[in-house]
Amino acid sequence: DCLDLAPDGVVRLSGFHRSPGDLLHDLFHAVHDAPRHRPDRDELLACVGEIGAVVVLDDLEFGGAALDELLDATPECAFLFGATPDVPAPSAESEVEEVFLAGLDRAAGVEILERTVGRVLTEDEANWAGDLWFESEGLPLRFVQAGALLRQRDQQRAGAGAVDEYGVFEDVRRAADRHADPDREADPDRRADPYTDAAAALPADPEDDVPLPPLGEAAAPAPLLASRLTPSARATLRFAVALGGEIPHQAHLPALVGDTHADAALGELASCGLVSPVGSRYRLAAGVQTQLEAA
Description:
By secondary structure, this protein is mainly alpha-helical. The protein is built from 14 helices and five strands. The strands form two sheets. Strands 1-2-3 form a three-stranded parallel β-sheet, covered by helices on one side. The longest helix is centred in the middle third of the chain and has 18 residues, at 140-157.
């Protein structure tokens, strides 16, 4: 309850590709019901100067004098900013307190992996996770992606899926994929859940096991993850790379990809840690575009 502290409540804004002026307009429209009105500069400053809100502003892209402009225009607001280390620092006069977030500890990384894969890690997997934690300095995204690698590995071990042989974005599937699912041979259009409970059907024979991904692939996993996605998800990645990291709107994916179920590709990409939310949209997660372009 923040009624006394912030009578206008909590406002969440995205700073992605937004200037101080853009954010002032965003704040105005978040608090006031004026969808067809764009105030001029004087009216805007008068209105936002009276707004009392806790503003959660993620993906901030500016600091210094530009940040001072935003803060000076909103004296009754309290801000929580989220920014990457490459964003310019606040000015000394802004009284913004910087808190640098450290990486996860090893136990938290293992917990993410186990939650993602849906089971307890084996001893070899736990040791592999420890090496990954040391290499990644506890970056959470790496463990989300590594968990997706383990989940895909479980599917391979259970015979529920196969890795394409012809590159990251090739739509040709191995014949083994159909042999693993006879119903698909009879009905090629039948869709299987890409993340079935493969862990329950793991092979008992160690000789049938699939080796853990090398640490180098786990540290830059986008190509390997992409090679194991559904064709619609890989097609969505192609568009994202071509658009500089921007993911087309989910409602547009069926028409762009040529698949009526392509809107589900976004959830598949998010579960693998290949995309991240930016405001109401999605874009490729940090480092993914570079890894895919180099593949």
